[in-house]
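Record now logged for everyone:
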Amino acid sequence: MLKGIPSLLSPDLMHALLSMGHGDEIVLADGNFPGPSHARRLIRADGLGVCVLLEAIARFFPLDAFVEDHAVVMAVVDPQAPEPPIWEEFRQILAQSEGKAVTLTATARQAFYERARRAYCVVATSERALYANLLLKKGVVPEA
């Protein structure tokens, strides 16, 4: 065991986070996401929700500051539907971690799936909220 690492971050997930480089992408997928058929690497996080996992990951994971689409969500199919409430939770968690507001980029379902197929890994959660898929692009840790 190590100190300071949340117990909900599995060794496989911590290894993936450490192995990822600048520009690599990770998908935190809800329970409806077709992870096994859309992942190069699938990491199971059964029993966890996306926000709980995001809070644990965000303290270690810098977002890419050189691109606008460093936090991507799957767009709602019905353009008249309200924004999913979980998106505001994503913004709050990421803003706290980054120290500034973070804009979510919505992309069409098939485009999201295509990016997920190219992502470093997909983390399959048990999240039940709809449209609770989040793709994050890794940035760099600045010099101290």
Observations:
- The longest strand covers residues 25-29.
- Residues 85-98 form the longest helix (14 residues).
- The mean pLDDT is 95.
